[in-house]
Write a structure and sequence with these properties.
Order of helices and strands: EHEHEEHEH
CATH architecture: 2-Layer Sandwich
Strand order of the largest sheet: 1-3-4-2-5
Oligomer: single chain
CATH topology: Alpha-Beta Plaits
CATH class: Alpha Beta
Strand content: 15-25%
Structural class: alpha+beta
Shape: globular
Length: about 130
């Protein structure tokens, strides 16, 4: 069962996880994920699935019908598998974007910026307002 955090704690926890990796070198990867149902009436079920299906080390925050996840130790391939399973479970009615450290970005600010840019590029959603 994953852990729900306040959205205000999302960016500080991304920074914390980055510094943890830099200090201890283990695990050496993590991913950020953005999820949003196409229909907002699906949001409670999506949140329930995320809460119940992910690991106890995984974190998620909710903001305006969106979910933001921090997946410690997750590889890009692992997250592709997870997001495809979620996409399939919801019959394609979930928007997903994921960013991998260290491959897609090298710092916490770059990770957040990459998530913002990729979400805007793929779906037109403007997430920058949440991270000011």
């Amino acid at each position: 069962m994953s852990v729900e955090i306040l959205f205000e704690d999302f960016k500080p926890l991304v920074e914390h996880h980055y510094h943890f990796i830099k200090r201890f070198q283990c695990p050496d990867e993590f991913c950020l994920v953005f999820l949003r149902p196409e229909k907002q009436e699906l949001f409670p079920k999506l949140k329930e699935v995320i809460k119940e299906a992910l690991r106890s080390t995984d974190l998620f925050a909710e903001k305006d019908g969106n979910l933001f996840l921090i997946l410690p130790g997750a590889t890009k391939q692992g997250v592709e598998f997870i997001t495809k399973a979620i996409y399939d479970f919801f019959n394609g009615e979930v928007i997903e974007v994921y960013i991998d450290y260290p491959y897609d970005a090298k710092t916490p600010d770059e990770l957040i910026e990459a998530l913002i840019k990729e979400t805007e590029h793929k779906f037109g959603y403007l997430l920058g307002k949440y991270f000011k």
